[in-house]
Each structure stands twice: as C-alpha cells, then as structure tokens.
Design a protein that fits this description.
heterodimer; A: about 240 residues; alpha/beta; nine-stranded mixed sheet; two-stranded antiparallel ribbon; 7 helices; about 25% strand; globular; B: about 240 residues; 13 strands
C-alpha cells in the first residue's frame, strides 16, 4: 500500500532577511512523519481546508506560539493573555478550519503542544493560560518530568505506565471539550495528553518530534518515532475502511 | 464546478528566526502561496527529500520559488568569492533539482521564479553569472527596469513586447540550458525569462508574486495573469 499523506500545519513568522511573512516548520516534525512511514506536506493556504482533507490521510497540528486569546473564537474568549507570551493570532482561524475539516471527515489528527491545546478548543473546551501564575510551577523552556498514563490509553499501550517527556509550555487544557478525555498526567498533577472517546484524535502537551534521533530531549525519554508510526498506521487503517 | 489545480510550491531550507531558536526549518514566503491561491489553485509545500515522485503524483504542477543561491558545483564552477559561499543550501538544491526531474519526467508544467528559473537552466545544462555586479557591471537589486519580450512568447502574449518588472537578483542566467530559449531580456542584455521549446516549462527572473493588482507600480503589469496562465497549463496537461 502506498504511504499515507500527512498534512502538517505551519507556524508563521516575519522574516527579517526576506522582509516578508512566511510559513515555517521545524524540520523535525516532517522527520517524525518520514521516519514513521508517511509523506508529509505543509498546509500553506487558509482558504483550502476542504482541499487539504481531499489530499491528506491525516493531520498534525503543530506547536510554536501559544494560542492567542481571540475574542472571535468561543472557548478562547475568556482567556487572559500572559505578559511576555508571544501568541499568534494569525494561526487561530486557519488551524480551527483545518481541525474541523479533518475531524468531520473522520481522519486521524495528532495535536502537538499548541496543536494539542487547539484540539480541546476546537471541541469547545478552554485553556489555563498561566501555569507558573496558577500553580507556582514551571513547565517552560525544556523542563522535563515524568507523566503517568491512564490504563487502556494509546500512550499506555505504546510507552507503559510512566515515562519522561519534555516540557515547553505555560498553558494547559482546562475545561475539557466535547468527547475529550485526559490520558496522561504530569507528576505535579497537570493534564499532559488527550484522546477523543470515539474519533481518531490524540493530543500531546510535549514535543514527540524532539524525542528522536541523536539528541533526544529528554535524554531518558522513550524514542517517539513509534508515535509517528502509530499515526501513519491509523491513517492506513481508516483509509482502508473507507 | 471545475477542479482546482493542486500546485507543489517548493520552499526554502532555512533556519527559524522565531524566538531566535535557529532551528532548521522549511519556509515558504506567503506571497508565493497567496499568488497561487488567488489565481484559483491549491498550494502545498513538500517536506523532505526522496519523495519527489509522490509529491509529483499529488500535484498538477510545480512552482520553484526564489531566494538562496545554487551551489556552483551544480554547474561545474567554483565560488567566485568567499561572500558567495555563505548563501547556498545543499538540502534545498537536492530538493529542487529532484522535484524538477520528477515533474519534467511526468510532463507536468513547471514555473520557476528567481532562483527557480536558475534551477531550470542549470538542471538542463546551462550555467549562471554568480555576480552580475562583478561579472557584468550591472546592479539591479531592489529596482524596477524595462524588459523586451520575444514575439510570440508567452510573456509577449500576456503583457506585450515591452513592459516593466521588479528586480531582486544578484545572479543570472549565462549559458542557456538545452532545449531552452530566451523569451525576455533587459535592454542591457540580462536574461529575464526562459521557456522550454517543447515542454511546459517556464522561468522568470523577476518576482511576479510581489506584483499583483494590490501593488500599484506605474507601468508594471498585474502579474496575477502569469499565475493564471500557469494554472491553465496545469489543468490543460491532464
């Protein structure tokens, strides 16, 4: 069977060199998909979510830039923007459309960090936007810690009851969206992963794409190539059913 | 409703500016993807190498974009000076040249812009001036200038025989590749556009993605027409 196409959402930045706005993607996201056996393509047009669903077998909503507290999107409205949090308003509507399109088509979705939070918002949940302020705990800038998984979850099957992950966030999913369940918790009690109860949707608060290769972060975590392979397998299964 | 053509828009291999992370990234300027979308196409950007045939299967045409220089080893030359050695990226060369080969082999239309035109020329055996300023005493970076399009060429049909374009390049086509013909030049003899004699392959040295009808520059035509022309070729190639 031919390799499934995995659509990846892009970050956006202003390039000082090119004097232009551009879409960017850390190469390690594509590297995870390639190693997992998929063909990655970057979504680069906000007006084409339906076309990307037609092209793609699965979706990865990526990290980089916290969710902007956009008053036009329910669930984000009451969020407070943290001082010094570089949020991206630019990414919000584009990724919500992509998420909805793939969700409604029943195609697999993997959310990573910001993308994981965005799945919860897409399902009508909300976020806590200040872990340091709310709990006096620090999950930013590469802190690493163990997580404990819920029995029977995808993560428990892949990596067991407890394992180390990296941590690059100050937000976490708070009130859960429709059909969302938490499948992993940090040692200090924060929700770290989600699954949808019936749809092929999984979200991770950490960065699995950094848990591969010669410089995995954290050094003691599991190799998460298998997570990308799981996503690719999911794509193939659902493609085969249809 | 007619089908929208899907365009593989090959971007840069670069490093992130965002949060000063300097992570290796894929990057594509929005101007390119917006130009394709505005003309009615669906752009996607390929990621990774050695999957060119899959990307070709997915798409109706290939857009090779601008920015970054081609390694002179690709055309049997050496760096003209140390400064020029800083502007190359071997990953992007692999990606662009392999994508070009896959789409050429499949007979699907290709448009090269800026560097993209130079990739087409080098892949077909041509070579480049590495520094127009040093080798030709011409400095056209960040300016506008007139071009003359050849009679009967796609550019002449779209914009007439004489029109003005923008200019953001330091390098340019020198020896023209096999099967290619020059279809537009500046009055001082710099090659501004090429086309293949028998295949739907087109290259322009100027930057049409920055010249749509939202930019009102005197005597510069609406280059949205060029993208519409290219998308039309992509649909016709079926």
């Amino acid at each position: 069977m031919s390799k499934p196409i995995v659509v990846i959402s892009a970050a956006q930045e202003y390039s000082v060199g090119a004097l232009a706005e551009r879409y960017v993607l850390n190469k390690n996201y594509a590297g995870g998909v390639l190693a997992g056996g998929g063909v990655p393509i970057l979504a680069v047009d906000p007006t084409s979510p339906a076309e990307y669903v037609a092209l793609g077998d699965g979706l990865i909503l990526t990290g980089a830039w916290p969710v902007h507290p956009d008053p036009t999107i329910p669930g984000i409205f009451n969020m407070r923007e943290e001082k010094g949090a570089f949020t991206s308003r630019l990414r919000n509507p584009e990724e919500l459309d992509l998420f909805r399109a793939f969700r409604d088509a029943g195609k697999p979705i993997l959310g990573i960090c910001r993308g994981h939070q965005y799945i919860n918002i897409g399902q009508g949940g909300n976020l806590n936007t200040g872990i340091a302020r709310s709990y006096g705990r620090e999950h930013r800038e590469g802190f690493f810690h163990p997580v404990k998984t819920e029995p029977g979850s995808i993560l428990a099957k892949l990596y067991g009851e407890e394992f180390f992950v990296n941590s690059h966030h100050n937000f976490h999913i708070d009130r859960l969206g429709e059909g969302i369940k938490v499948t992993a918790w940090s040692a200090d009690g924060l929700p770290e992963a989600l699954e949808h109860e019936s749809l092929p949707i999984i979200g991770l608060q950490w960065h699995p794409e950094r848990m591969r290769g010669d410089h995995p972060h954290p050094p003691k975590g599991p190799d998460m190539t298998s997570l990308f392979a799981f996503l690719v397998e999911w794509c193939l299964q659902i493609k085969g059913v249809k | 409703m007619s089908r929208k053509p899907v365009i593989c828009v090959a971007g840069e291999h670069d490093y992130a500016i965002q949060a000063m992370s300097y992570n290796p990234v894929y990057a594509i300027n929005k101007a390119f993807t917006q130009a394709i979308a505005r003309a009615g196409g669906v752009p996607f950007t390929p990621l990774g190498v050695n999957l060119e045939e899959r990307y070709c299967d997915l798409a109706d045409g290939l857009l090779l974009t601008g920015n970054q220089h081609i390694h002179p080893g690709r055309y049997g030359s050496t760096f003209l000076n140390d400064e020029l050695a800083k502007g190359v990226n071997p990953w992007r060369d692999y990606s662009d040249f392999d994508l070009l080969a896959a789409f050429m082999y499949a007979g699907k239309p290709i448009l090269g812009i800026g560097r993209g035109m130079q990739v087409i020329n080098v892949a077909l055996g041509g070579n480049l001036f590495q520094s127009l300023e040093y080798e030709r005493k011409i400095h056209n970076v960040a300016s506008y200038h007139p071009v003359e399009a050849s009679a009967g060429s796609f550019l002449e049909q779209l914009f007439g025989g004489h029109f003005r374009v923008n200019s953001f390049h330091r390098q340019g086509v020198n020896v023209v590749g096999n099967g290619l013909e020059v279809v537009a030049q500046t009055p001082d003899g710099i090659i501004e556009a090429i086309a293949h004699q028998s295949s739907p392959i087109y290259g322009v040295q100027f930057r049409p993605e920055l010249l749509d009808d939202t930019v009102t520059q005197r005597e510069v035509p609406d280059m949205g027409l060029l993208f519409s022309f290219f998308l039309g070729k992509c649909l016709a190639a079926h």
